[in-house]
Amino acid sequence: MIVVGVITGPLYDMGYLRTLVYTGTFLSVLGLMMTSIASEYYQIFLSMGVCVGLGSGCLFVPSVAIVSTYFSTKRAAATGLTAAGGSLGKLMRSF
């Protein structure tokens, strides 16, 4: 997810937040749906590893970056909680 941030970070700064959210949501849902019909290992790798990974990368970096625009005091704590909560939300989605 963080490697995708090299691309999504500048896109977020240029004002493409809505495009990143739409793209990330589409890729995550598409990857999960393609996993349900996968029958070979490489198909699971492509759907979960590549498609969901790219989708999560498109969603993670803007979600952490947007928090700093709403907080003027304790900005570091808010950003840290957001970054830590990203993995917790991913864990809870798997249950």
Structure characterization notes:
The chain is mostly helical and 95 residues long. The protein has one domain. Helix content is 81%, strand content 0%. It has helices spanning 5-13, 17-36, 41-65, 67-70, 75-93. The two termini are 21 Å apart. Residues 91-95 have low confidence and may be disordered.
Structural class: mainly alpha
β-sheet strand percentage: under 5%
| Terminal CA distance | 21 Å
Uncertain ranges: 91-95
Number of individual domains: 1
**Gross morphology:** elongated
Largest sheet report: none
State the order of secondary-structure elements, H for helix, E for strand. HHHHH
Give Rg in angstroms. Answer: 15 Å
Annotation, overall tally of beta strands: 0
Mean of residue pLDDT? 84
Helix content estimate: over 70%
Count of helical regions? 5
